[in-house]
Amino acid sequence: MRAILYKEINAFFSSAIGYVVIAIFLILNALFLWFLDSGYNIFDQGYASLLPFFSLAPWVFIFLIPAICMKSFSEEKKQGTLELLQTLPINTWQLVLGKFFGALLLSVLALLPTLIYVVCIYYLGKTPGNFDTGEILGSYIGLFFLISIYTAMGIFASSLTNSQIIAFMTGAFLCFISYFGFSGLTDAILNSDIYALEYLGIAFHYKSISRGVIDTRDIVYFISVTALFLSLTQFNLNKKN
Question: What residues form the membrane-spanning segments (predicted)?
């Protein structure tokens, strides 16, 4: 698995892909949060808060992470190297996890420079440092788990086809439906009796953990959904052998 992980990281940073992905993520966030007249502009909030960033990030990652993951297996299939990888002394699980952690690491690296926003918020308040540290920490933890689910979905989508474009579209669709679909359906039906339906969506648990309260039910949800899509990927690859 370690060899696959190193291979993925080298593939990202030996070309411009890794740098472009990180740059696009940071530029989009900077534009919406600091420059554009949008609902996410921090200066328009009237108080020092990173809530706009944590509301915007799930949208950006819906497109960014499937773009990172789209070549994970689809490119291997197209070039005929997937069969070669499967002849190595590793099992399918190790192959899947190597691809997963490689894409996850790149996404986390894209997230790390946003810590500068915390410094900015620290000094933007009327009283420096007067912000909810627990909320910010919880939101970053929530973002990490959100990234892990998106990455697992992107990896699964890539295992379904040898077309990177189809893998990207499928991954983005899965991420969008999983984050916004259940809560959107709940709002459309407007029935308090279907609370369990909203509970199935990522948004419910992401918003819950972003309040700064680490609930084990949210952690179990994130880990379970990530494991589910990684298992589906492993099953899909084994089925085609």
Answer: 12-35, 47-69, 100-124, 136-158, 165-182, 218-237
pLDDT at 210 over 70: yes
**Eight-class DSSP state of 16:** S
Number of helical (H) and strand (E) elements in the chain, helices listed first: 13, 0
**Among residues 203, 166, 197, which one has the least CA distance to residue 55?**
203
Q: Nearest to residue 185, comparing CAs of 169, 204, 158? A: 204
Q: What is the pLDDT of residue 219?
A: 94
Q: Output the pTM of the full model.
A: 0.90
Average pLDDT, the chain: 86
Q: CB of 155 within 8 A of CB of 232?
A: no
Distance between start and end Cα atoms, the chain:
19
CA distance 47 to 173: 34
Q: Where are the domains of the chain?
A: 2-239
Tell me how crowded residue 61 is: count the other CB atoms within 10 A of its CB.
24
